[in-house]
Amino acid sequence: MTELPTRRLLLVHAHPDDESINNGATMAKYAAEGAGVTLVTCTQGEEGEIIPPSLAHLAADRDDTLGPHRATELAAAMKELGVTDHRFLAGAGHYRDSGMMNTPQNHRENAFWHADVNGAASYLVQVIREVRPQVLVTYDPDGGYGHPDHIQAHRVAMRATELAAEPTYRPDFGAPHAVEKVYWNRVPRPVAEDAFARLRAEDPGFPGIAPVDDVPGVVDEEHVTTAIDGTAYAAAKTAAMRAHATQITVHEPWFLLSNELAQPVFTTEYYERVIPSRDPEGDEPVETDLFAGVDA
Ligand SMILES: [Zn+2]
């Protein structure tokens, strides 16, 4: 058995690109510091809109080869972040992108939205018991913004966290492992509002500017327990985002999705710690390290 790094971080995401947008600076920072960083992506993002006209033929309603193409984009993005351990849940293509909520794609047989949560979690338990992360990062129960695959990624990650620690559950998957800390991706509303105010003031001439609520996970400040200053890794984050060329156009410090609406690139990344929960009465300072308090 190979020796595990001292600090180990697992991130669970829905589609290629979510990791770079939400956690790119965090992933680059911990990878550079020698922590084990593992990314599990639940689908290949087969239903995504495609920005470059030259790649329009990959789309689900044409060649339907966007998934494998996005897997190559993800691999390139992980190179930029220095992350070597990235996997698809149950293997590439096992679960398919479910499309936006209330679209016919939700009902495809292998749509992730339809996956049995315990069944999908069983694949993630195998990863957790192998890499034994002290820290897990995923979305809130709304998936940050209501996308079915993001909601499902949340459910699967939370369920797998429980099952992985349960000694009687599938001993054949390895020794039980209790993840010490679980975080949900967040952006404090005042931070988001300030950044959008700067974007409007600068008016760089983009076709439009996204509304603040297009940013996943925007919440009132009191929900935010943790801020990771990834300023030193801003270039790695934007390079990783740029690698997802079918999905993202980057013009630092802004980026655009296929809707052509500009948004800020956040290089400090924010989290809400849910395990262990914060003392609601306590006056705990904002953490600056996901591993704070972890006995590594
Ligand atoms: Zn996504």
TrEMBL record:
Enzyme Commission no: 3.5.1.103
Single annotated GO MF: N-acetylglucosaminylinositol deacetylase activity
Cofactor: Zn(2+)
Signal peptide range: none
Enzyme class: hydrolase
Record-listed Zn(2+) binding positions: 15, 18, 150
Region (Disordered): 276-296
Catalysed conversion reaction: 1D-myo-inositol 2-acetamido-2-deoxy-alpha-D-glucopyranoside + H2O = 1D-myo-inositol 2-amino-2-deoxy-alpha-D-glucopyranoside + acetate
Cofactor: binding comment: Binds 1 zinc ion per subunit.
UniProt keywords, alphabetically: Hydrolase, Metal-binding, Zinc
Assigned protein family: Belongs to the MshB deacetylase family.
Entries under HAMAP family matching the protein: MshB (MF_01696)
Function: Catalyzes the deacetylation of 1D-myo-inositol 2-acetamido-2-deoxy-alpha-D-glucopyranoside (GlcNAc-Ins) in the mycothiol biosynthesis pathway.
Name under which the protein is recorded: 1D-myo-inositol 2-acetamido-2-deoxy-alpha-D-glucopyranoside deacetylase
Organism: Streptomyces cremeus
Gene designation: mshB
